[in-house]
Fold this protein.
Amino acid sequence: MVHHAAHPAASAEPGADLKDPSPNPLPEGEGFSPSLPVGEGRGAGGPDEAALEAGRVLFAAECRFVLGAQTEDHLPPPAGPEIAFAGRSNVGKSSLLNALTGRRALARASGQPGRTRQLNFFDLGGRLTLVDMPGYGYAHAAKDIKADWQGLMFDYLRGRPSLRRTVLLLDARIEVKASDREVMALLDRAAVTFQIVLTKTDGVKQADLARKLAEAGGLARRHPAAFPATLATSAETGEGIAELRASLATLAI
């Protein structure tokens, strides 16, 4: 059983205490492959029909729940490629996962944001594993819960050889928070490739969305572990879902 101590707050934002608990980050480049296939997104020309079809076929496959891990010793053995989904509580992660897989209830949002405290693993047709990570940055989560899931999140991100990419979700309707920036810095230190994906774009005016996409692109350029292509998505309207499927399909076996 792995026990984690609570970490001190890193900023004035409530719940933004996402400090790396270990003084020894992975050596630069370990676990981070800058040669991964470049995905497609706005400003990148968009995926072609073949890539879109590959994404459609992959995510049309059966997607089944494998297990939920609350401690590092409960993690399943590394096997095929894994894609993790991370974001602040209420960012729309569950809705996005359901939209990607075409299921209504594959992932369920917690009735109490900030209380989900395990990594949920889903097998996608034997070709890709989707990992639903606990939300971070919720102001009213109890300190023991924050310490619990933060410790597990750090352990998973830093030591998972099968993790090919983390999809970092940012709510397009609000500003980037301190906790988001701290997670990006953590992913840089852990040398884990991450792709910024905006959510809930159906609630944003076009001019504001263009500004948010430019901001996301700027963030990606400033982080060495960031995937170059950013995407704007809406689980409500389906915007960007096919493009995200195509991008992730390049990592499947």
User: Anything to note?
Assistant: Residues 160 and 243 are 26 Å apart (CA to CA). Residues 1-19, 21-44, 110-115 have pLDDT under 50 and may be disordered. The two ends are 32 Å apart (CA to CA). The first helix runs from residue 49 to 60.
